[in-house]
Amino acid sequence: MNGIILYQSKYGATKRYANWISEETGFDCVETKKARIEEIRKYDVIIFGGGLYASGIAGLSFLKKHINQLSGKKIIVFFVGASPYEENAFKQIVSHNMQDSLADIPCFYCRGAWDMENMSIVDRNLCKLLRKVVAKKNPEEYEIWEKALMEAGDEKCDWTDKSYIAPILNAVRQNSNFSI
Ligand SMILES: Cc1cc2nc3c(=O)[nH]c(=O)nc-3n(C[C@H](O)[C@H](O)[C@H](O)COP(=O)(O)O)c2cc1C
Predict the structure, then answer these.
(1) What is the 8-class DSSP label of residue 51?
(2) Which residue of 19, 48, 52 sits with most ligand 1 atoms within 8 Å of its CB, as the best mutation to test the pocket?
(3) 8, 14, 103, 177: which is deepest, by most CB within 10 A?
(4) Atom 21, ligand 1: which residue's CA is nearest?
(5) Would you say the CB of residue 143 lies under 6 angstroms from ligand 1?
């Protein structure tokens, strides 16, 4: 049984998780942008990871576009965001991103990092601007990503932790003869 991890990471958090999963499974690890479906189809297990941006999972368009060519494969998705895990928020992100033929794919959350100083100017200014706009709203009416943005603060934080990959490794093992 062979597998591959496809990841899209803007600031490195998702990449770190992808590398940890690769270390534990021995699976190949490739940036989604560089992936070609003809190659990906050769694998039995495809683990797909992306950073969260305004509640969207980065790079998911690759999976949406090619899902019909991946029938019979074991597919797992993980996404990486700044906010702490919350079951309700998790479910909303899953239902927002994983529709139609993606609906039955198992999903996992790994907490990432936040460093406004290291962001691109566009992202930093966008975050500052959005915060100003969101601050005028009633906190009880915040969208999930708005809540994440307001909670993230200005401090540099790194919540990446290898223990987040344990459920992903369990999902790889499930119903397979793959021992890791
Ligand atoms: C413009 C912008 C939007 C973001 N939106 C969200 C969000 O909706 N939810 C969340 O939890 N984190 C959000 N984040 C934080 C990133 O998901 C977090 O920094 C993550 O670690 C990024 O992973 P990456 O470095 O692999 O791309 C946002 C960050 C930026 C810059």
Answers:
(1) E
(2) 52
(3) 14
(4) 112
(5) no
Ligand 1 center to residue 82 CA distance, Å? 6
Every domain of the chain and the residues it spans:
3-114+158-173
**Torsional sign, CA 93, 157, 10, 112:** negative
Q: For residue 77, give the amino acid letter.
A: V
Distance separating alpha carbons of residues 177 and 7, to the nearest angstrom: 25
* pTM exceeds 0.90: yes
Sign of CA dihedral 86, 51, 111, 99: positive
- The CATH code for residues 3-114+158-173 is 3.40.50.360
Gap between the Cα atoms of 4 and 104, Å rounded? 19
> Residue 72: CB partners within 8 Å, gap ≥ 6?
none
Q: Which helix (H) or strand (E) holds 145?
A: helix 144-152
The whole-angstrom separation of Cα 112 and Cα 152 is 11
pLDDT digits (tens, 9 = 90+) for 100-146: 999 999 999 999 999 999 999 999 999 999 999 999 999 999 988 88
Q: Whose CA is nearest to atom 10 of ligand 1?
A: 81
The SS3 call for residue 75 is strand
